[in-house]
Amino acid sequence: MGASGWAYLRLRASLPRLDGEVALGGLSAPVTIERDALGVPTIRALHPADLFRALGYLHAQDRYFQMDLLRRRAAGELSEMFGAVALKIDRDTRIHRFRAFARQVWEREREGPQGPGVTAYVEGVNAGLAHLGGLPFEYQVLGVKPAPWTAEDVILVGYAMALDLQDSTARTDQTRRALREGFGQEVAAFLSPAMSPADAAIDGSMGEAPSIPGPEKVDLHARPVSTSSITPGSEGVFAMTREDGAELRFGSNNFALAGSRTAHGGAMIANDMHLGLGVPNVWYRASLVLADRAATGVTLPGVPVLVVGSNGRVAWGFTNSYTGTSEATVIADDVPLQKYEEKILVRDGKTELVVFEWAPGGPVLRRDAKGRAVVLRWIFNQPAAIRLALAELFAVNTTDEAVEVAHRVGISPQNILIADAQGKIAWTIAGFLPRRDGRDGFVSPSEVPVISTDVLWTANNRVVGGDALRLLGDGGYEAPARAAQIRDDLYALSRPAVPADLLAIQLDDRALFLAPWRRLLLEVLTPEACAGHPERAEFRRFVENWGDRASIDSVGYRGVRAFRSAVVSRISAPIFQACVKIFPEFRFTRLAYEAPLWAVIGARAPNWLPSNYATWDALLLAAADEFAELARNEGKPLSAMTWGARNTVRIQHPFASLLPDRLRWVLSMTAEPLPGDADMPRVQTPNFGASERMVMAPGRENESIFHMPGGQSGHPLSPFFRAGHEDWARGRPTPLLPGPPKHRLELR
Asked: pLDDT confidence of 439, banded at 50, 70, 90?
């Protein structure tokens, strides 16, 4: 047998066992695991601890490397596996002391109601890893052995999600502070308004149209512009490729209808969580069955909990809330600082010592221009911010019970929408909110707002105003366009809704956000401007016939999007140059700049026109011409510049880049153009989008819908590696519940 044959056999040996009987220590009664044609397991147990033990067994068998990366990401221990290439990530992470905090959290939680389930889960994980016939293939490639799973690793997975979902360096707060310092409060409030007339808050609150500050406050036309800072596609602080105008952040959509608006009289909820897309997918599907209860949805490998799902009586889903959970404060010189040392083990045998300082409120992020310590105040500086209560949703019977659980959960603060079989729906915040009076600790559950109406929606936007907004804070809410489109879609339903109606809203790729930009672009590309310019004339024809949506064959959609980005980059750089000097990591894309941008453009305010343009018409025409220039640089005719050519989705395993181009398909989903974009319900970019789509009708799970990119297994030789991916890509409705069993494994 040759080397390739031997490697293939080793790879096959690491596949999980799907059928037969397996002895698993610690079980109080036998557990049955049935898998359907997609590899989705149904776990049947008599006791909760056995259920979690079996779930841990499956997570390890199918996804152990994924779990390992999550705990190492949070603990700052990637260098031990990958070498010096990961040192910067580890250095930046160690400042949070998550490994030490995880130990503290587990010491508190082990005696609580979730302690036995976590212990059983950890033992199941380690048994599942040991029962593989070979190490997961990633360890074979790296030439390292996996360390066992521990209870504190379960906590670290929660911290890993906080790093992804939260502003863990208070960049938004520091950006706003730099804006105020550079321009003063009035101009800063104009450039980054807390509320706007376009808002889609569920309580109906909205702001007023902004008043444009005059030349006595800002006069860009009298200020020289550094052209290097506004070069499209540059790598500077204003860096946007010629077609990017936003900084994608972890988001999601969820929306719900009360029973008064559904065909069957029970409530319904839709949830699609937007995350980076990779192989394997973030989530692991499962149906968990006890004698008196069953719940189906998605789990997170490394944690014994159903993250999103339906238990037959209640369904729930999340979106990132972007509440204000972190801020950067400058402390006085006489505030005592405590030094900490962390040793980072590097794979080549070296050890790097990292020293950092903590003030009473949190770690020192940096020193400002005056040498003062800038300290991070973040909820996850406090071990009490993690509390293992999410598993309690498995047993709730009503929306009100689920709200009570949400207020006990210690996770990255999330919008949670809840729906029950009796027809009631509610919104609240799951996870703790920091006090805003300068003291440590969290807002009491009785103060956290709850809204219950017949229609609810969130899309990372501001969802409440008034006192509730002051309590939640503002961590950099997303623009309201996506939420507004979902809201309007829900109210436009002309009949009592069924699950397919909510899926259609999830797949809505109409370009409502860009419609005003299209109108502006057509005003710029006048017949006079196009005369003698065949490229402009051709571009105008594509824009006129853009199709009104982010479809893969549309040149016009891509061109309008590129036009907006070109306008934004030309205006933003001269405005924010001074802010970068104050805060080098300043990112204007974290600001709510759409409303003030339109105000300035609509008024053609001369004091807001960058000095390198004689007129606003000249700026807008130069931005319009950039798309044709992009086509020339790519060596393509304008007709080939479709949105699909730009929005080709590539979902790959982290190791795919190690393979030759011709073999990368082995560790990847098929690369293909997909419709959708960032400012519409169907969020889709080349490597970011819906990590799942669920439409749940509690009590009618047989009518509910599910999609997931990638397959259930992360193993390239598994029959479940790509199973189900095509349905996600095409948006085809498929059942939430697992199908008929194809495999049966008995744990004894």
From this structure: confident
